[in-house]
Specification:
The structure is a single chain. The chain starts with a helix and ends in a 6-residue tail after the last helix. It contains 4 helices and no strands. The chain has 114 residues and is mainly α. Helix 2 runs antiparallel to helix 3.
């Protein structure tokens, strides 16, 4: 249970999961663009296997197979990061801490005079 607390509880853990999710989302956008621009969309012709006999691309598929397979692999990393962020946010709900590290004037209760 201590491992779960370290992984998901607290503002620091939530920030880490959110940053990881952001980086993975940016990565999937970039690799998706590479797949599109290099016409590698059929680099792996079947799903979830890359070929009927293998989950990984082989030499006959060439560079397009590697590009498509990399994009598919990053999808699973993104799922893990998104689930981690969701679980951390769920476990930290209702806490008064912010992820940004500083509070705005209205959130801290002070009012500015005009």
């Amino acid at each position: 249970m201590d491992v779960v607390r370290k992984l998901f509880d607290g503002g620091r853990a939530l920030r880490a999961w959110l940053v990881a999710s952001l980086i993975c989302n940016m990565g999937i956008v970039v690799t998706g663009a590479v797949v599109r621009l290099t016409a590698s969309g059929l680099g792996c012709p079947t799903w979830p296997k890359c070929t009927d006999a293998s989950y990984v691309p082989h030499e006959a598929l060439g560079l397009h197979g590697v590009i498509e397979f990399g994009n598919r692999t990053l999808t699973f990393v993104l799922i893990i990061a998104a689930l981690g962020a969701f679980i951390s946010a769920w476990r930290n709900r209702g806490r008064a801490r912010s992820c940004g590290g500083s509070r705005s004037a209205s959130a801290s209760g002070s009012r500015s005079r005009v």
